[in-house]
Specification:
heterodimer, A: 189 residues, mainly alpha, B: 8 helices, ATP synthesis (chain A), ATP synthase subunit b (chain A)
């Protein structure tokens, strides 16, 4: 039989409610060691870590809020800038249109002016040429008529002034007749 | 040491063999010394108590030794346990401001008691250290001393006595009776019940598991085998139940300790 069972049968077992001293002392020491290690070293450490974590979380949240506010601000700025840019673009487009229209108008008027000038210059040229031709013709015709008349009448019309006067009178008559004829033709039309 | 001495019961005894049921009893809570250190004879419960110290410190060292802001798995488990005692027990009755001072004590107490209880279902150990009255008594004694110290420190000698005895003039003629009853209830009965509540629960739990375990073996003969199966199932059920009771008793022990501290710090009314 188990020696302890022998003890039990002999009624020598202690009262289970009476604490044996060695166990009591060892229990106290064992707990004291646990308490010292946990209380002095390990739990302060974890408390510090937990505080750090809480701070980190709170700091992180603050940071996140700040970042969000900044992002919102940036977004608003960006939107404002975008609106400005759109406005500016619209304005520039309109300006360019207006400028283009005015340039076209200007160029058109310039072109018209140049055309008028060219036409006027052409007219003047024609007039001048006509006049020169007429003068030269008159001279040649006068000379030819004079020569012819001189040959015919045998009399040299040496006197140039008289000759010229006679020729002019003749030509004037001729012109007057021509003008009258032209007017008549005009009227007949 | 033979296997026979290691086990809590006779191994060669079965039903129908003309052998009586080797019922577990007080003898199941007595241990021969394993070895002797400096004149102290170390038995199994003492060894388990020392191992408890090693395990509790070892666990928290591993969990909190290099505590990080972003916790690892072990640290998270440790924090959960720490927070359970801190918020679930201490802050609840003492408040955050006043309770903070007592958190390390209560955390140490809870895990120390719990691990000592837990040995009950750890293979090879299979003995709840707290079923030896000396261990709960030692812890109850510490709580008792703390309670007395806080009472007299907070209220002075007369105030402390009034606090302990529940002195209240409005009680009138039954005041002497109430004072005597309160004194006995608080000063003498309280530490006793504090220790015995834990001790008796673990003692009874161990006895139950032992009973069904021994019966499973003892009944293993003839028709008894069927009953042995039932007994074995009961062993498993009781083991699971003990796992629950161990935690509950550790919780109750610490909860009571916290309540005593709260009573000591409370204003006299």
């Amino acid at each position: 039989m188990n020696p302890l069972a022998v003890l039990a049968s002999e009624g020598e077992l202690e009262n289970p409610l009476l604490p044996p001293l060695p166990e009591l002392v060892i229990g106290l020491i064992a707990f004291a060691i646990v308490f010292i290690f946990l209380g002095k070293k390990l739990l302060p450490k974890i408390n510090q870590t937990l505080d750090e974590r809480r701070e980190a979380i709170e700091g992180g949240m603050e940071k996140a809020e700040a970042a969000q506010a900044e992002a919102q601000q940036v977004l608003e700025d960006y939107r404002a800038q975008l609106a400005d840019a759109r406005h500016e673009a619209a304005r520039m487009r309109q300006e360019a249109q207006e400028q283009g229209a005015s340039m076209i108008a200007e160029m058109r008027s310039e072109g018209e002016r140049q055309r008028e000038e060219i036409i006027a210059a052409g007219h003047a040229q024609i007039e001048a040429d006509r006049k020169a031709a007429s003068a030269s013709l008159r001279q040649d015709v006068g000379k030819l008529a004079g020569d012819l008349a001189g040959r015919i009448v045998g009399e040299s019309l040496a006197d140039a002034a008289r000759q010229s006067r006679t020729i002019d009178r003749f030509l004037d008559d001729l012109e007057a007749k021509a003008a009258a004829g032209a007017t008549k033709a005009e009227a007949n039309r | 040491m033979s296997a026979n001495e290691m086990l809590a019961f006779e191994t060669n005894c079965h039903i129908f063999d003309g052998c009586g049921f080797p019922a577990p009893g007080l003898n199941s809570f007595l241990f021969e010394p394993l070895f002797t250190v400096g004149g102290i004879e170390f038995n199994k419960p003492m060894l388990l108590a020392v191992l408890t110290t090693v395990i509790v410190i070892g666990f928290f060292w591993a969990a909190f030794g290099r505590a990080k802001v972003v916790p690892g798995k072990l640290q998270m488990v440790g924090e959960a346990g720490y927070d359970f005692v801190r918020r679930g027990i201490v802050y609840d009755s003492l408040g955050k401001k006043e309770g903070e001072k007592y958190v390390p004590f209560m955390v140490s107490l809870f895990f120390f008691v719990w691990i000592m209880n837990l040995w009950s279902i750890i293979p090879v150990a299979q003995f709840p250290v707290t079923s030896i009255i000396a261990f709960p008594a030692a812890l109850a004694l510490i709580v008792y001393v703390l309670w007395m110290y806080l009472t007299f420190k907070k209220h002075g000698f007369v105030g402390g006595l009034k606090n302990i005895t529940g002195y209240d003039k409005s009680l009138g003629p039954i005041l002497p009776l109430a004072v005597v009853l309160e004194f006995f209830s608080n000063v003498i009965i309280r530490p006793f019940t504090h220790a015995v509540r834990l001790f008796a629960n673990m003692f009874a739990g161990h006895l139950l598991i032992l009973m069904f375990t021994i019966a499973s073996w003892y009944l293993l003969n003839g028709i008894g085998i069927a009953y042995a199966g039932v007994s074995f199932v009961m062993t498993v059920v009781m083991t699971a139940f003990e796992l629950f009771i161990q935690a509950v008793q550790a919780y109750v022990f610490v909860l009571l300790a916290t309540n005593y501290v709260q009573g000591a710090l409370a204003e006299h009314h």
